[in-house]
Amino acid sequence: MKKVSFAEFGGPDVLQLIDAEEPHAGPGQVRIAVRAAGVNPVDWRVREGQILKAHPIELPAGVGLDAAGVVDEVGEGVEGVEAGDRVFGEGSSTYAEFAVLSAWARMPEGLTFEEAAGYPSVVETALRVIREVGVQPGQTLLVSGASGGVGSAVLQIARDRGITVIGTAGVANQDYLRGLGALATTYGEGWVERVRQLGHVDAALDLAGSGVIRELVELTGDPQKVISIADLGAPELGVRFSGVAGSVPDALAEAVGLISRGKLHIPVEKSYTLVEAAAAHIDSQAGHTRGRRVVVV
């Protein structure tokens, strides 16, 4: 089978499309014929060797955590799913023609494989950081870097829970944020004052790693009310860095419920082929994403 792999840490150029042996489902796992794989910042952070404590790997290694596809192999002890089922979930080395998933759910009706591939890690992360930052219904959450996949999910999940959301993003994404129910404003000079004019901030999330931790602490008044998933230097300022996933099966179950109720939709901004994996990483690292990027197999 074809698989994207890298034999050394480095830039996008270390990614290679290779012929590899097919993986097989072990106990508690399923294998899928991959139709699409989600492109996440964690993919290129792992490729660069940034977060090995949270994601230890041996080289050469595959790429990708999220995928959607058709089950073709069911591991020992797995119940409730069979060959031919359309599922989305999280596993390893998902930029490939076949991948093994350790957590999955049936795809909601009306969702394409490309759309479904963009949800697993994104929704788990969104649910986790909302929980960790402790924001409650009736309060206001500031989201820095709100237009990407995690931001899109945070805005919609928070609004569904009765939380007011202020989102920051580039000029081109202001209407997108407003369409998701957020009070929107732009980055750049004077952004802190623009946020203050929109309302009091009870908690804040840094999703872009754009060097705004000090300002988020200033706006909330307490570093314990700020969480970052993108700035590895956040702990130096007393802010928690959240990088270890919680329960992916629980997150997938909640995602299915939200999608089925019409409360969560994350658009696919751009799709890439396996050959274009390096380009997908370059674009992901550049930021300014509206929704999700996926690799189509």
From TrEMBL:
It is found in: Cytoplasm. Its main location: cytoplasm. PROSITE patterns: QOR_ZETA_CRYSTAL. Pfam families: ADH_N (PF08240), ADH_zinc_N_2 (PF13602). It comes from the Bacteria. Keywords: Cytoplasm, NADP, RNA-binding. Homotetramer. This is NADP-dependent oxidoreductase.
